[in-house]
Amino acid sequence: MSLRVSHHLLLCATASKAACCNPDIGKASWTRLKAMVKELDLEDVERPQGVVLRSKVDCLRICSDGPILLIWPDGIWYGGVTPERTESIVREHVFGGQPIEDWIIRRTPFK
Q1: Strand, coil or helix: what is 86?
Q2: Which of 7, 35, 60, 67 is deepest in the core (most CB within 10 A)?
């Protein structure tokens, strides 16, 4: 059985040498991201669109405006990702398909 993946969310939130953000905000954003993926049942392997994977990463090489959330395959990078923004991004972009333009700091499409 192959696993269909709709999105992979990479959150640079708890870097060992945090230059981009306050590690406490990063940790809270990661906690909220995990909860949102679970709450919206985005890890269900039977989900027609595919599962949503999430990874906490040490560094995405943007040393400001953090925490940073990269959404693959869209290639959209969000900056200043607080727990509240995390909820909006997951609901509106990942679940609803509508990126939040005001929070995007970079675009690098992979498609």
Answers
A1: helix
A2: 67
